[in-house]
């Protein structure tokens, strides 16, 4: 499978030896799947079935229709040899090819699917252990912003993972997200009834907000800085040893920030 960069991509953004762009070849996508396996299964404790262990790849049916955002370290080589970070991006049309978004296995997405305009599901984000720097994460966000701007995305969403499935340990974080960042009803996904785990587990008034925010994964913090919300209910994902929350982000802040950056970088005004 070859991804057509002219259709899906925005070129490559560079920051020193690092770059970010959409995967262009099957070999680059395969490298991203191998990276996901190393991070999710070998490092984070996800449970692999026999086929996954044999392949050394984290792969499902959605990978064939997705765009794969890559962080590349050009000091390591080019193409698949350079892949050190990845993010899976699924637009409405791509999801239609399968009949659903990945997150639909955990959440009722009907409020989001009913929206006019383009929506984007984000998932399977990971960075190689040796490249988990602020620069790499900033580059991933720049890549997402460029993609959102390029494809005129109105809203993005996806399952964000909290490590582990101990609900008592995660109680403060889940309670904080529910109390302070619950999505408005018109764009609020809800965990499927058979998987619904209440997030309002403690009295919000008793939370040490500074300590709780410190515990949030960097990815979740990034979404919240963009004005992101969470859906109602968490979901236990025992395969990946995580507790998932559904994140929803309107993209006005993303596209406005990228537009200003684009204008400065290119010396042009954007009229559309």
Could you walk me through the main structural features you see in this protein, from its secondary elements to its overall organization?
- It is a single chain.
- The protein is an alpha+beta fold and 272 residues long.
- The chain is 38% helix and 23% strand.
- The protein contains ten helices and eleven strands.
- The protein has helices spanning 5-8, 26-43, 50-55, 92-98, 110-113, 134-151, 167-181, 209-215, 218-225, 252-266, and strands spanning 13-15, 18-22, 67-73, 83-91, 107-108, 118-127, 153-163, 190-191, 229-230, 235-237, 242-250.
- The strands form two sheets. Strands 1, 2, 3, 4, 6, 7, 9, 10 and 11 form a nine-stranded mixed sheet that branches. Strands 5-8 form a two-stranded antiparallel sheet.
- β10 and β11 (242-250) form a beta hairpin.
* Major beta sheet summary: 9 strands, mixed
**Run of helices and strands:** HEEHHEEHEHEHEHEHHEEEH
Tally of helical segments: 10
Tell me the distance between the termini: 33 Å
Structural class computed from helices and strand pairing: alpha+beta
Poorly predicted sequence stretches spanning 5 or more consecutive residues:
1-6, 266-272
Question: How many beta-strand elements?
Answer: 11
Residue share in β-strands? 15-25%
Helix content: 25-40%
The mean pLDDT is 90
